[in-house]
Design a protein that fits this description.
Low-confidence stretches: 1-13, 208-223
Order of helices and strands: HHHHHHHHHHHHHHHHHHHHH
Number of helices: 21
Radius of gyration: 21 Å
Strand content: under 5%
Number of strands: 0
CATH superfamily: MFS general substrate transporter like domains
CATH class: Mainly Alpha
CATH topology: Growth Hormone, Chain: A
CATH architecture: Up-down Bundle
């Protein structure tokens, strides 16, 4: 049997998708379905509450939390594999896995079976989300990564919005079960496309790549089989410990935790908030919030990516400063949007808050891959994914659901702008911890 590193070399020679632009399009499209699937449940909360499953708000919130816990726990495993073996094959496995699990959600007969199906989606998504940015960083040079990450992560608002829209429309016309079937099955086609992607050498697009990154064969353990597993485990643990000593990287991830807590809680509960607190009909609530997300997300993500790359010509702190300033502006507008009784005020403030939030997407993800070595990028993304989800949007839907059961949803969502403000402060500290020089 071929060694995994030899398999990666074979994948590179046999790849039929050699264009970096086409690869970016495929990976971005997969990311779109990733987030469509992730936020599909948000559009179905009210129906699940009043269906034969009879979910409480706490149970509804736990569906997202359960998925994200599995997602976060499995991510470091795929991160380690992504730095050592064929990335396209791992991505294809992940996409196929989450697609099947999503479709199986439509067959749930009680809360427990739905919870298990949604949690299983996390296994597949952990493979894709940790490895995708690493693969893209080896397709494109450093100077273009803000824009590349903006295009890749632009699928977040578009996919999330489609989750609300598709979920809401399918729910109203065909029922909540059909929504899961429609969202899950197309991913199997995308999984096949992944197998044709080229897997370039680690650090191929960096001006100064490490020796280990230029020669994957040196990463292989050529020693005796006995003890090889434990040597590999030690190398993985050592890699993660090295990342924890990287102060700018750690602060970037900590700020991302607060940002993800806010965005995850807002994304999950807003359709229900609009229906209960503002009296907006269910279909209109999901479509209207989805429209806000897709427009502000598309504009904000692209603008942030291009702005980050432009400012990074003058300072390597630019990506973090842009993220800090944008979220600082977003916090008060989010507070007013969630507390003002006027529908017009809500609409204006929510658009501004979401626009500023999405402005950070490209810069913050470019920071993560630029602050570490080429041979650490999949691991850095994996550790970031593990942390931001386990401490961010794993607890936020559940916490907001519990606060809602204890008081009201109107009071519970006030925690969101506070988390946004915390992310701004931490990213500002992270920017100050970086050297002042120009980006390489």
């Amino acid at each position: 049997m071929a060694h995994p590193l030899q398999s990666a070399a074979i994948d590179t020679r046999k790849a039929w998708i050699n264009s970096a632009g086409v690869a970016l399009a495929i990976l971005a499209f997969i990311n779109l379905f990733n987030y469509l699937d992730r936020y599909l449940v948000s559009a179905l909360v009210e129906s699940l509450k009043h269906s034969e499953l009879a979910l409480s708000d706490t149970q509804a919130g736990s569906l997202m939390s359960g998925f994200l816990i599995v997602f976060a726990l499995i991510a470091p495993i795929f991160g380690a594999l992504g730095d050592r073996t064929s990335r396209p094959r791992l991505i294809a496995f992940g996409v196929a896995c989450w697609s099947i699990a999503t479709a199986l959600s439509g067959l749930a007969w009680n809360f427990q079976s739905l919870f298990v199906a949604r949690a299983s989606v996390g296994v597949g998504e952990a493979a894709y989300v940790t490895i995708g940015p690493s693969l893209l960083s080896d397709y494109f040079p450093r100077a273009q990564r803000g824009r590349v990450m903006a295009i890749f992560f632009c699928a977040i608002p578009v996919g999330s919005a489609l989750g609300y829209v598709v979920g809401g429309l399918m729910d109203v016309h065909y029922g909540w079960r059909m929504a899961f079937f429609v969202a899950g099955l197309p991913g199997l086609v995308l999984a096949l496309l992944c197998l044709g992607l080229r897997d370039p050498p680690r650090g191929a697009q960096d001006e100064v790549a490490s020796r280990e990154g230029d020669d994957p064969g040196k990463a292989a353990d050529s020693g005796p089989r006995k003890g090889r597993f434990w040597r590999m485990v030690w190398r993985v643990l050592k890699s993660y410990l090295e990342l924890l000593r990287n102060k700018p990287y750690v602060l970037t991830v900590v700020g991302y935790v607060a940002y993800t807590f806010a965005l995850g809680g807002l994304a999950f509960w807003m359709p229900a908030f609009l229906e209960r607190m503002r009296g907006i009909p269910r279909e209109q609530a999901t479509v209207s919030f989805g429209t806000i997300v897709v427009i502000t997300g598309f504009i904000g993500t692209f603008a942030g990516g291009w702005l980050g790359d432009y400012c990074a010509k003058y300072s390597q702190r630019a990506y973090l400063w842009i993220s800090a300033i944008a979220t600082l502006i977003a916090a008060p507008f989010a507070w007013v949007a969630l507390t003002a009784p006027s529908q017009t005020v809500y609409l204006i403030c929510m658009v501004i808050a979401q626009l500023m939030m999405f402005l950070s997407t490209g810069p913050i993800n470019a920071s993560i891959v630029n602050l570490v070595l080429p041979t650490q990028r999949a691991s850095a993304n994996a550790l970031g994914v593990f942390t931001i989800h386990l401490l961010g949007d794993v607890p936020s839907p559940l916490i907001i659901g519990m606060l809602s059961d204890a008081s009201s949803l109107a009071q519970a969502v006030k925690i969101v702008p506070i988390a946004i403000l915390i992310s701004a402060v931490v990213w500002a500290v992270g920017a100050l911890s970086q050297p002042k020089g120009k980006s390489a």
